[in-house]
Structure formats: structure tokens, C-alpha cells
Amino acid sequence: MAGPTRIIFLGGLGEVGRNMLALECDGEIVVIDCGLSFPNEEMLGVDLVLPDWSYLRERSDRVRAVILTHGHEDHVGALSWFLRDIDVPVYGTPLTLGIARRRLDEFGVKADLRAIQAPGELEIGRCKFRFIAVSHSIPDALSVAAITPDGTVYYTADFKLDSSPIDGRKTDEAAIRELAEEGIDLLLSDSTNAERPGRTPSERIVGDTLRDIFHRSHGRIIVACFASNLHRVQQVCEVAEELDRKVAFVGRSMVNNVEVGRDLGHLRVRDDSLIEIGDIERYKRDEVVICCTGSQGEPLAALSLIAAGDHKSVSVTAGDTVILSASPIPGNEPAVHRVINGLYKAGADVYHSETSPVHVSGHAASEELAFMIALARPSYFIPVHGEYRQLALHRNLALEEGIPAEKIEIVEDGDVIELKAGKITRGDRVQAGMVLVDGLGVGDVGPIVLRDRRLLAQDGVIMCVVTIDPRNGDILAGPDLITRGFVHEDGSRDLLDEAADLVLDALEDMEGEDITDWSALKKVIRRALGQYVWEQTRRRPMILPVIMEI
Question: Phi and psi for 42 in degrees, rounded to 5?
């Protein structure tokens, strides 16, 4: 007798980003989305954060495919690492695959990419996957209905109910209604904007705001937005063409996505409207629009370099206009504010989401989320994609729409939901969590390394070097103290000399102990040095004893 269908949540629960879940049916596994997230302020030195897919790696012979819902990094960004572990076909719409292919090529990863459409269907094993178009801040997005022998699971992915989308591709409410008539046993719905009342405005209002700003600008115009937001890029190009301004794109991801978007017809702009960034000085400042990356204040992104005066091709002077056409991701506010301050110092007129309607979200607000629940009429409901408070608020919306409390679950990464005969229960948890990418290292930075980095960042380090004769334990040289990030050695010589004397006294007082026992020596050094430093400075630097033999 076949076991239940299992939904395994590997990322995107209790957090924004790193979206990944797996559907296991009759022993075959299909992965839906494979996203990454970006490090928070406590993850010092970390570049990216991946889901922990150990559960899938251990069952790689049973994984059949990956289905991608759209091309945002939090849904496709981890694919380059995943496919190195588990080589399976990847399904997505043409734009999603086009964006994913660029990233895979950069990492030298070969992949079997297979195009799907919405509406469309795909059979894998005993499961049928139905694809339904949704409106989002990137074209070609879709939601997924998994029709299994145990019931139907509908995963909205990221969506909004935009009544006038830029590309005319609305969320397909008729298809969702048809699916609901057949019966949706479990609804998994995006919770990102559950805290926002009402409805998310249409993308078109940003175009109206851009048009107004462009008409009032008399210098160079720089627009920073997410490279994947081709709807926003389309509106920038349309307004630029209305004013006979040339458009230049800056930032590797921006250039790559624009090329893919133009090739697939999602970005429509005349060839004679585009110029290379290196040619902008051939035009007057009021004849150019620059569309760039860096709306989140990333240190090496184009806008940050421009604000600091370090970009090799683009400068900002008084009379120029800069538009940050994106809202800061939670945690990025300080970096974004630094960039804005730099632009103001350069004399630019700056527009951003806190002062002007230059950005709208791609996610449904609370009224739209409630409408989706009413439209889908699921037997069971699980909010996904969001921090815990957003999941909890989405749960409240489901209660207001008449779903009984006992048929709503809030899950976390690693939780497993089992579906059998249209009813859900909780299964045993699986390993899940975060895998940190630091440079070329994947997973080699963990809690202990991050703790040490935080200590180093807070109070610095003291290295205590002692040279000892291993034959008799005589101290031949030292203790010598070397500090980094604790105190300036030249200005604190007295403090360090006294600390060294105390360490020497402690070592010479090791009566009855084997002074050639290096672990005992290090313990004495840490204790003596740590106690003195705390008494004198109320700081706790990391103490690294170094024992040398001669």
C-alpha cells in the first residue's frame, strides 16, 4: 500500500527568501523552487545563504525534477549549487530558464532545462502538475497545482492581483476557480505582504510617477531597480523614448537580464534608443537615462559606486536626478540610506520609496490574500513565504474567510506535511536550515566561525607568543603580545607590558604542573590575560596563545 504524499518544507518559512519545497509521491520527489537569501548583519563575511537540502542529497536517486515558478533569486538562485549535487531536469517558463541559464553558465554548470507554459501541464510519475499564470514583478511567473493520488496541492508562489499589468498577463483567476471546482485539498499561499492592508497598487502607477519625474528633470537621470524587474525597466525605457533620451544599462545582472528579456520579447525597446555605458559622455546630460543595479545599497553594485564617486563610467553632479525604484529589503535600510546620503552630497535630486511612489510591490496585500483563499476554497491552508509574524497574520485572514483553525497549519523549515485521502497530518521533521556560502567555501562556515567573527569584530584579538624549551620547560622568549582590533599597540604600551608581565608570572607559578603540557599552558595564558584585560578595559577580546618550541 502506497504511503501518503509528503510536502517537505526546506526553506522560505519564518524568513524572507531561500524558498524551496519538495513533493514526495510514491517514492518520487519533485522539487519546487530552489532559492537563496542574502546574509543578515550578524553573518559577517558571508556572501549568500542556501537551503540545506541534505534530505534530498541522501535520496538523490529518487529526485525526478525541479520546477521553477519564476526567475527571482529567492526562487532560482541556489540552482547552481543544487545541480552539482543532484543532476535532474529543470522546468520553467522561457524567461525563468533564460535567467537561470545565465547564472548556470557563470558557474560552469550544465543543466537539462525544459520549457513549460502557463496554462500547461506536466506528468511526473503518478503526479500531474498544472501551471497557472500569475502576475508578479517579473514576467512569466506561474503557480503550481500538484494533482496527486492523495489529493490536490495548490502552491501560489509569489503573486499579486494586478488589474492592469504592464504585459497584460493577469493572475488567471478563471483557472484557479476551475481548479477549486475540482477540489483543492491544500493551499500554500504567499505571505510576504500579509501585514499590508488593502490591495497592492498596479505597476502602472510607477510609470506615471516616472513620467512626471522625467519631465521635471534637466540633467542626467539614473534609475536603480532590481535587475529582474523587467516591467520596471520597460517603463523606464518607454518614458525615455517619449523624451528622446538614450538608455544605458549598468550592472552585470541588469545587462544579462535585459538581453534575455529582449530576446524573448518581454522587453520592447528600439535599438536606436540604447547606447553602451562607455558612450554616455558623447551625449549631453539631459539626453541620457541610466538604468542600473544597486537599489539595495550593495557595496559593489553600480549605484553604490556612483554615490561614492568610484564608478569608472558614471558620475553624479548637481542637477542630476536619481530614482531608487525599489523598497529596501528588511535589514538593508542602513546601506540604502548611506547611498542616498552620498547622492545628496553630490548634489543630485533623489527620489525613493519613502518620499515618492516610485515603487510598488510584486506581492499581494491582505485583501488580495483573502480573495485568493476565497477563490481557492481549500480544505486545508498553510501560509508560506514570510517571517513568522506574516505567516500568523495570513493565518488570521484564513480564519476570517471561514477556514477552521484545526485545518490551518503554520510550518517551519524542516516540517513535513502528509496528505492522504484529502486529509493532512504532520510527519516527522527532516534536517533543514541554512548553508552559508563564503567565497568558494560552501557550508564550511557555521555557528562557531560566525561566533568567532562576531567576537573579533566586537573586541578584537590578542595573540600571546611564548617560546619554550621543550626539554626542560624554560621560557626562552616572551610573552609577546600582538593585538588587532583591541587597542593601538603604540598608544597602549604600558597596558600591554603589564599584561605580559602578569602572564609571565602566571607561567612561572605553574608549580606541580608540566610546563611542557601545551594545553595547560594555553589555559593559564587565557585565564591570566583575560582576567587582567577585563579588569582594565571591560572588554573581552579573543585570546590566542601561540606556543613555540626551540
Answer: -90, -10
pLDDT bin (cut points 50, 70, 90) of residue 228 is confident
Q: Output the pTM of the full model.
A: 0.82
Question: Which of 342, 353, 335 lies closest to 306 in space, CA to CA?
Answer: 342
User: Do the Cβ atoms of 521 and 544 come closer than 8 Å?
Assistant: no
Q: Is there a contact between 250 and 313 (Cβ–Cβ < 8 Å)?
A: yes
* Topology classification of domain 204-351: Rossmann fold (3.40.50)
Are the C-beta atoms of 115 and 122 separated by less than 8 Å?
Answer: no
Pairing of the two strands 221-224 and 186-190: unpaired
Collect all residues with Cβ–Cβ distance below 8 Å to 205 and sequence separation of at least 6: 357, 360
**Which residues of the chain does CATH 3.60.15.10 include?**
5-198+361-442
Q: Note the pLDDT of residue 454.
A: 67
Q: Residue written as cell 515558478?
A: 69
pLDDT digits (tens, 9 = 90+) for 56-103: 999 999 999 999 999 998 899 899 989 999 999 999 999 999 999 988
Q: Which residue has the cell 485539498?
A: 185
Q: The C-alpha cell of 189 is what?
A: 499561499
The top-level CATH class assigned to 460-549 is: alpha beta
Alpha carbons 237 and 408: distance in angstroms, whole number = 44
pLDDT per residue over 319-369, tens digit each?
999 999 988 776 678 888 888 999 999 999 999 988 889 999 999 999 999
Q: How far apart are the first and last CA of the chain?
A: 71
| All CATH 3.10.20.580 domain ranges in the chain, comma separated | 460-549
Which residue numbers are catalytic? Answer: 190, 363
Q: How far apart are CA 8 and CA 289, in angstroms?
A: 46
- 52 Cβ contact list (under 8 Å, min separation 6): 10, 431, 432, 433, 434, 435
We find that the CATH architecture of domain 5-198+361-442 is 4-Layer Sandwich (3.60)
What are the two backbone dihedrals, phi and then psi, of residue 121, each rounded to the nearest 5 degrees? -140, 155
**DSSP category for residue 26:** T
